[in-house]
Amino acid sequence: MIIGHESSGVVVKLGKNVKNLKVGDRVAIEPGVSCRMCKFCKEGRYNLCKDMIFCATPPVHGNLRRFYKHAADFCFNRHLFWYSRHSSTLIIVSTTVWIFYVHSINFYVFMSSNFQQMHKNPE
Ligand SMILES: [Zn+2]
């Protein structure tokens, strides 16, 4: 099993129908490739797709290797949003921020439901 899913790289070869990238582009790789057909994918919430194929999740090998083939629409040109060599780090940071954001909402919901119960039964 090959590990690796938060990574970036340089495009060395393209499929014949790829229009969004060119050889030499530096890209950040979205490790999860969704079906692109289900309700979640069409709403832009592809991270909820039940048919997601994810790097380094058996039986799919990860991308920590010299050459790796990936869906072009899940490779993002780093020049479009980030000019440093650390775009894959940005993915990890954004994921961490998102986790804290989601948990703070759950905490808020928990607190507000407790508050409502306390309000109904003031003893
Ligand atoms: Zn889907």
UniProtKB/TrEMBL annotation:
GO terms for molecular function: L-iditol 2-dehydrogenase (NAD+) activity; zinc ion binding. Keywords: Membrane, Metal-binding, Oxidoreductase, Transmembrane, Transmembrane helix, Zinc. It holds the Pfam family ADH_N. Residues 1-76 form the Alcohol dehydrogenase-like N-terminal domain. The keyword Metal-binding applies. It comes from the Eukaryota. The chain crosses the membrane at residues 90-110. Its cofactor is Zn(2+). PROSITE patterns: ADH_ZINC. One of its GO terms (biological process) is sorbitol catabolic process. Belongs to the zinc-containing alcohol dehydrogenase family. This is Sorbitol dehydrogenase. It comes from Frieseomelitta varia.
